[in-house]
Amino acid sequence: MKKKAIISILSHEILNKDDAIExxxxxxxxxxxxxYFAVYDETEISGMEGTTTTLKISKEKLSLxxxxxxxxxMHFDKSNQCTTLYNTPYGVLEIKIDTDDLKxxxxxxxxxxxxxxxxxxxxxxxxxxELKIKIKS
Length: 137
Prior knowledge:
The chain is mainly beta.
């Protein structure tokens, strides 16, 4: 059963915590089989208005799926590196994600996810990034 939720996402480069980006938004939260889903609509502030983001959360993996004006499928999994195409209205970027740490503590009431990962965008220098997700339903 879908429940209304408040979803908070905080992202920053590890070496530059002053440039953190935080989004707090309403959305839906539900469980399907053994996975949890948090779904929300992006806004003009995120630069992705017209995009729906789905966080698919399992015991060992988080997938971030975007559909709309921006399309992407990013997987955070300590045992596998992810290479994906990030489609925006301005063009397509290749992104490589190498997950260093992943902590998932989610139940039927919501929870938290912590991800520490290295991201390489279009062959540029690696960005060491932390992502903290909180879901309250």
